[in-house]
Amino acid sequence: MKRKTFLKRAAGLAGLPVVSLPGANPEADRIRQELLDAWRASEKISIATAEQMPDAGYAFRYTPEAMTFAEQWRHCLLYTVGQLQADFEQPNLYAGKRLPLNMTKAEVMAELPRMYAHVRRAIETIPAEKLLATVEYGEHKIPGWRLLYVLENHIIHHRGQCVVYLRLKGITPESYYGW
What we know:
Layout: H1 3-13, H2 26-52, H3 69-88, H4 105-125, H5 128-132, E1 134-137, E2 140-143, H6 145-168
Antiparallel strand pairs: 1-2
Helix pairs in contact: 2-4, 2-6, 3-4, 3-6
């Protein structure tokens, strides 16, 4: 192969994500699988919760200063993607795009799977060294992979608020047992 051809091909690979090879770091592989399982369960529950609210209920807020049902989900989308960019240098799905403040049910239902797919790609491509590195989080030092659980816990918090919104609208939320 000619040097010029090689350099052109190599330059084309520079924009591709770094993917850890399975088996290269068993601890990182185990953590990745655990994270993927947790985020798949989160997606299933989030979509089921968002689906239960009728479209008209997406503008509901229980007090004037509270977020609407739609704003709860919009906040989860923007915060999760923004933190993946800040903490793990992942692309921001919403760079140059503004999600409407008053998203419709259809918009939320389209964006939730997109955001969760983005999280899965991040989990699969974040280098093992970055997953296992110690980072500062508030006053604590934690392994980088725990930041992905912090993001999931944030979604759990807002999803729990959405369950309250459902009840306030007279809707009995689906029950969830186990994973």
